[in-house]
Design the sequence.
């Protein structure tokens, strides 16, 4: 009975608890409904407006946020201005990368302008370029030197002039280059008289004219004759290359000392030039003329195999000549007493070859006194003109008769082959063979094609004793080529062949130690070294 009463009490208590929970739920729902009415019925609904805050980055680093896109550039310019205002010299900063990212937020919060500017200044200060200074850049050809001042530029160029103008009669001026739109200067060399021209004009106007009076005349000085008619010394000077001088702001490390800059422009550098082969030139003579070792000339020109390579008239050879970037061209009038030779006179013979010549008259030097105008580029003479002379001894010119026909050339008569015996002294390869080899031998398989080394007429084609089967060819200039130890002959006596025509097949006939071709060149009936002609 007691248990039943207890159970009833518990049921009543549980029912009351359920009622309380239901009541709490109803109150909560009413509170939520009330909030809904307050916030969603009273206030308007939020709508998407787009980006309203911008995150600013300078060189990839965040420097702050702003709600005004137009402010970003203004804040950056202010940071640059404040940095520049703290320096006496121009400030150069690496090109910055200024970016931003927009975002949309409900509760907007941005940084103060002053804070953004300070963070920008920190980043910009770290991007400063090396200290820059006002300077002058001088460009000659492709070489540029930088100096502190225009006066240093002028002194450097004046030093280049003074090497030749030992009397200091010429001066360098920096003037505006009228051919350029920008403020580019150039350099010119003027005489001392030109430099003082304006002063002289004032003096002539105010002094001489006033002293003489308007109606007075000046006696005309009679013209000088002979050697006295010329003013001796340097007549003119100019730079041979265009010179550009431009103002600039440059890093301190790029500005050179005056002496170093001058040396860079005026010291001789190796420069490639073209030499055109003249009639009568040899490689050794060209080497002496241009002052360049023969092996260097050969190394610079792929077509030259060695010092014996045949060169042609008008052939262009690459040579290196030491030349400075900046040169001075100057003209001087001088009076000389000297011996001199007349140019060689040539008599051209159209029936002779160009390697044939005869001296018809021996030269004799003359002696004269002359006023001469000489034009030089630095120390090298470019041109000489005799203005006046008095001959003390008449010269006699050398007269040479020379041929005009280009002599035949010679080619190797076989393709390939291994050189086994050169021209001249040797050990006899077999009993009875000569120890004075009169040609060259190339080892080659029997049947190798043998071609005419030069055009000519076949004068022998057959057996030649120790030479086995041979072919002799006479050439128009009087030379002869011989081909020995042949296995087959394809030409006959009296036949004319062109250079490179097939004439025979190599073999191993006659007095021979193995398959090879024996080849000779004869000049005036005497065997010569073929390698001097091939």
Sequence:
């Amino acid at each position: 009975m007691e248990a039943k009463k207890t159970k009833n009490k518990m049921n009543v208590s549980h029912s009351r608890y359920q009622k309380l929970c239901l009541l709490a739920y109803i109150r909560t729902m009413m509170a939520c409904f009330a909030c809904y009415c307050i916030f969603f019925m009273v206030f308007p609904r939020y709508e998407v407006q787009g980006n309203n805050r911008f995150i600013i980055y300078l060189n990839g680093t965040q420097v702050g946020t702003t709600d005004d896109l137009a402010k970003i550039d203004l804040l950056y310019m202010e940071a640059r201005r404040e940095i520049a205002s703290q320096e006496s010299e121009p400030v150069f900063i690496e090109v910055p990368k200024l970016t931003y990212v927009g975002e949309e937020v409900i509760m907007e919060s941005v940084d103060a302008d002053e804070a953004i500017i300070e963070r920008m200044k920190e980043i910009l200060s770290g991007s400063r370029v090396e200290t820059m200074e006002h300077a002058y850049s001088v460009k000659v050809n492709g070489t540029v030197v930088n100096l502190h001042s225009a006066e240093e530029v002028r002194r450097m160029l004046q030093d280049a002039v003074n090497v030749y103008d030992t009397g200091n009669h010429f001066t360098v001026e920096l003037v505006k280059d009228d051919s350029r739109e920008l403020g580019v200067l150039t350099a010119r060399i003027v005489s001392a008289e030109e430099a003082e021209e304006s002063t002289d004009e004032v003096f002539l106007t105010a002094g001489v004219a006033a002293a003489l009076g308007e109606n007075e005349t000046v006696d005309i000085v009679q013209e000088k004759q002979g050697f006295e008619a010329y003013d001796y010394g340097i007549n003119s000077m100019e730079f041979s290359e265009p010179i550009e001088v431009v103002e600039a702001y440059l890093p301190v490390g790029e500005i050179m000392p005056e002496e170093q800059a001058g040396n860079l422009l005026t010291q001789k550098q190796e420069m490639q030039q073209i030499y055109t082969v003249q009639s009568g030139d040899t490689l050794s003579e060209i080497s002496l003329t241009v002052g360049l070792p023969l092996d260097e000339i050969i190394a610079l020109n792929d077509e030259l195999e060695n010092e014996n390579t045949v060169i042609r008239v008008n052939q262009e050879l690459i040579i290196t000549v030491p030349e400075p970037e900046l040169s001075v061209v100057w003209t001087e009038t001088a009076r000389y007493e000297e011996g001199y030779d007349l140019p060689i006179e040539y008599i051209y013979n159209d029936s002779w070859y160009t390697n044939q010549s005869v001296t018809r008259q021996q030269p004799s030097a003359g002696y004269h006194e002359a006023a001469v105008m000489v034009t030089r580029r630095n120390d090298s003479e470019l041109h000489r003109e005799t203005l006046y002379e008095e001959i003390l001894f008449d010269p006699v010119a050398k007269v040479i008769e020379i041929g005009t026909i280009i002599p035949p050339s010679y080619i190797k008569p076989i393709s390939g082959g291994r050189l086994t015996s050169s021209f001249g002294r040797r050990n006899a390869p077999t009993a009875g063979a000569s120890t004075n080899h009169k040609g060259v031998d190339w080892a080659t398989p029997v049947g190798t094609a043998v071609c005419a080394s030069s055009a000519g007429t076949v004068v022998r084609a057959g057996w030649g004793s120790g030479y086995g089967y041979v072919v002799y060819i006479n050439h128009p200039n009087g030379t002869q080529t011989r081909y020995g130890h042949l296995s087959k002959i394809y030409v006959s006596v009296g036949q004319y062949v062109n250079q490179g025509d097939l004439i025979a097949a190599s073999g191993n006939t006659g007095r021979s130690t193995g398959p090879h071709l024996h080849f000779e060149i004869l000049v005036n009936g005497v065997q010569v070294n073929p390698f001097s002609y091939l």
